[in-house]
Amino acid sequence: MGDVSRLDRLLSLLAGRLGSLACPLCGAALRAPEKTSLRCEKGHCFDVARKGYVNFACAGTLAHYDRTLFLARRAVFDAGCYAPAADALRGVLGTEAARLGRPPRVLDAGCGEGYYAAALARDGCEVFGVDLSRDAVALAAQRPEPVCWCVADLTRLPLAPGSMDVVIDVLSPANYASFRRALRPGGLLVKVAPGQDYLCELRAALGQGPHAPQDVIDYFGSHMTGVCYESLRYTCAVDGGLREAFFRMTPLTGGRAPDPAALASIRDITIDLRVLTGRFA
After folding, report:
1. Could you report the per-residue pLDDT of 20-33, keeping only the tens digit for each?
2. Is the pTM of this model over 0.90?
3. pLDDT for the residue numbered 1
4. Domains in the chain and their CATH numbers?
């Protein structure tokens, strides 16, 4: 799909979803988009990129999160290695849709190259994908699903207060204050965190110990009510190409060299996740 068609698709989405967006600098409402920019009522201007996303980010980058990492992540996703995780999210969102009596409006916070946001959009959810990495969002915007892609900082979300029914945060840093502002009263937060054995084979090749998921679980529980907890654990068989993609897709390996023999010996990768759901009091 060419750049022009991605731009036109974004402009069409913005026309119907403008009420859910707000200026991340002052909180003012946003005006109908011009061809190349989006402005708030107080004059702040944001670029509407031809590649199919809005750039709300004032400044800032994330170390080790570059195009190479997200291309590797896309290869891993395309191989189906995270399909069970996507299915778990779709199940949670399907239950929430039944509770609401309509498809939920969803923020994918830290959407990366857009795998989960696209899956939820295919199920009929109205999805906003936000990530600080421009490389990631540019890749995400290549997807055909109707997602409103935004480059933005989680501390300055370009969303109107109370505009989201659900926030999902999958293996990404969280900002609970921002999530609370974005969610409507009674809205649902879904946090997917790594379990103790997540990518344990890669961690062993790097000489790293296991994750400590209990800290994340405890922190989530201290902020939320009605917390539900699900464990998702399985392994993926990998060949040389997929093993290399796994190694390149995680910031754990950024700038670090593995033990070559240990890396070459890996035949399976463990996906160990904790799916947490809850609502702010």
Report:
1. 999 999 999 999 88
2. yes
3. 47
4. 48-280 (3.40.50.150)
**Cα distance between residue 99 and residue 226, in whole Å:** 15
Per-residue tokens: 201: 């084979």
Beta-carbon count within 10 A of 276 CB = 22
Contact 44, 181 (CB under 8 A): no
DSSP state of 103: P
Which one-letter DSSP state was computed for residue 67? H
Does residue 8 sit in helix, strand or coil? helix
pLDDT digits (tens, 9 = 90+) for 36-80: 899 999 999 999 999 999 999 965 556 667 899 999 999 999 999
Return the closest-CA partner of residue 125 out of 89, 93, 167: 93
End-to-end CA distance of the chain: 43
At 163-190, the pLDDT tens digits run 999 999 999 999 999 999 999 999 999 9
Q: Using DSSP, state whether 54 is helix, strand or coil.
A: strand
Helices 83-100 and 115-122 cross at an angle (nearest 10°) of 40
Q: Please give the Cα distance from 85 to 232 (Å, whole number).
A: 8
DSSP 217-272: HHHHHHHEEEEEEEEEEEEEE--HHHHHHHHHHSGGGTT----HHHHHT--EEEEE
Give the span between the Cα atoms of 20 and 117, in whole angstroms. 17
Is 138 a residue whose pLDDT tops 50?
Answer: yes
Number of C-alpha atoms within 13 angstroms, CB side, residue 75? 19
Distance CA 66, CA 99 (A): 38
